[in-house]
Amino acid sequence: MPRISAATVAEHHAQQRLALVRAARELLEGGDAEAVTFAAVARATGLARNSVYKYFPGRPELFAAVVEDALPRWTDAIEAGMAAARTPRERIAAYVSAQLELVRTGEHRIARALAGVRDAKLVRESAGRVHGALLTPLTEALTELGEEDPRRTAVLLQGIVNAATTAIEAGDDCAAVSERAVRMAVRAVTGEP
What we know:
The protein is mostly helical. The protein has helices spanning about 5-30, 40-45, 50, 60-85, 90-105, 110-115, 120-145, 150-170, 175-190. It contains 9 helices and no strands. Helix 1 crosses helix 2 and helix 4 packs parallel to helix 7 (about 120-145). The termini are far apart. The model has no long low-confidence stretch (mean pLDDT about 85).
């Protein structure tokens, strides 16, 4: 009988773990973190419920893994939009537009669902890393513009994005809200209309 290598076992473990994370993510897209139980995640992946505990000791660790899994998609979308922009002003506009596009496509629903999770220190820590990573390209653009306190300004501009997100999720017209949020963000930094 052929031996199974440690690398094969590790790869299988990583694939199973990712399948569990993706199943949890799909459940979160419905907007309700309470729907994400180990039984539901196990059903979605075809594993036994007790197998989920081999990968995650509890829901907070699973939720934190979902956030960490989403981070590259979010940062890649923002960085791609900003990379296509030629000027710092255009990069600020791209930053706002890219995030609101993530809201429009539903990618942000998991963040909204996770916001209501009780006892979620790990989730808050993961979300903090996500927000920090999202602010980095904006901070760099603000530095190029000569902004005296680029990190603080980036946090305040994120407030515009957050308010626009709330408006879109409440049913306001995404295109109109996005256009206005972009204008407000650019005007706040550059003074240009």
